[in-house]
Amino acid sequence: MPKESDILKLLDDVENQDIEAYQDTIGNQPLMAEEPVPGKIVGTKAIPEVEATEWKLSNGATVVVKSTDFKDDEILFTAYSLGGNSLYGQEDDISADLATTILSMSGIADFDNITLDKMLSDKVYNLSPYISDLTEGFSGSASVADIETLLQMLNLYFTRQRIDPTSFASYINRMKGILENKKASPEAAFQDTFLVTSANYHMRKRPMSAEILDEAKLDRIAQIDKERFADASDFKFFFVGNVDQEKLKPMVEKYIGSIPSTYSKEHWNNLHIESPVGVVEKTVYRGQEDKSTFYLNFHGKFSYSKENVMAITALGKILSTRLLEVIREDKSSVYYIDAGPSINKYPEAEYGMTIYFGCSPEKVKELKEAVFAEIKDIDEKGPSLEELNKAKEKLLREREVNLRENSFWLGALSSYYRNYDGSFKEFGDYNDLVNNLSIDKIKKTASKYLDFNNYFSVTLKPESAK
Known about the structure:
Elements: H1 4-16, E1 41-47, E2 52-57, E3 62-67, E4 75-82, H2 93-105, H3 113-119, E5 125-131, E6 135-142, H4 147-159, H5 165-182, H6 186-198, H7 210-213, H8 218-228, E7 236-241, H9 245-255, E8 279-285, E9 292-301, H10 306-331, E10 334-344, E11 350-359, H11 364-381, H12 385-402, H13 406-420, H14 430-435, H15 439-449, E12 455-461
Parallel strand pairs: 3-7, 8-12
Antiparallel strand pairs: 1-2, 2-3, 4-6, 4-7, 5-6, 9-11, 9-12, 10-11
Helix pairs in contact: 2-8, 10-11, 10-12, 10-15, 11-15
């Protein structure tokens, strides 16, 4: 043990040192060391149905812009191209899954993430790259004054990526600790079971664990990031908000038009991740709390059309309202309950209708039977006229609100390019689609898509209920 005199001497030594004040070395370095050589807008097309404009650039990229006056200082951004992690084999599954996480943590060009945050601390913007199963791209936003910063960062993600080994090691170590703690969570076990069941135990949908995390390889992460963001020609970029298009044009030509293109015309691969066939029911016994969670999912192939999408959306609203009124209010033994559909067009058109509720463990069976009874009633009789009208009113009201939201328009533009090849001819048919909904249409939709011979369910119960 040190003596008291030793500690006092140490304090005196520090007190008497000539310590220089911390000097931040950021300075006024520009984000881009060299100005990119601009491309050109070689084609302009008006999209009157949505009051937007499409620009074709000399490097093959497509840019779609919609100017709005909903918010004075908001510009939203997204971009995508086809491919995603479906282009990689099982051995690269985890590397592809973590690729953009590590890319975002590593900084850009010559700047690590800490330096970058300091350099751009006065900028109002965000930009995040992503790689999903079928696509890769970006999402982001910026103030009107800082849209150029967003475009500069976008350019650098294509041209001067940075993958930092220290950030990779730090992330892996931190995640391993999180994953170890996750083992004690009943909710995590429930979610993992729901995930693997919904994907019928496909290897590409394994729940993350510390062991699986070790499959990530830094060199493959760097290569995958480079490959996914190497070709501007198959990307589509979308801007929505308070955009002055004449001011945006030269910036788009400079920062997007200068991105290299290989004209590779990539497409996604079908990984054949499919839900199980027939009835699958599972129970997870974890935790000590006297509560249960129940998730039920009807699923299958979907006949994709705007009419069918509208019908199953309306069915979800009718079912959700009825379950709230009949089961939550009448039986008053459920903590919460809801229902809603999900529809995917690619890689194969499919639907899911998820119904979930929370209750005490002894009530799960009774409430499940009550839910099934309400579904059968809609299947056999259809909804009441009042239920149908309420659903229509809700759909029309939501649409009215959405039409004044930048986020809605950003999603609509990118969705129509993905699902309808950029054709907006039927965009204005929404109200007609809603008004044409009938009791018979909802009844037939319920009969077709709520199949009691094809669903899976997962229930969480405490260990004491086993």
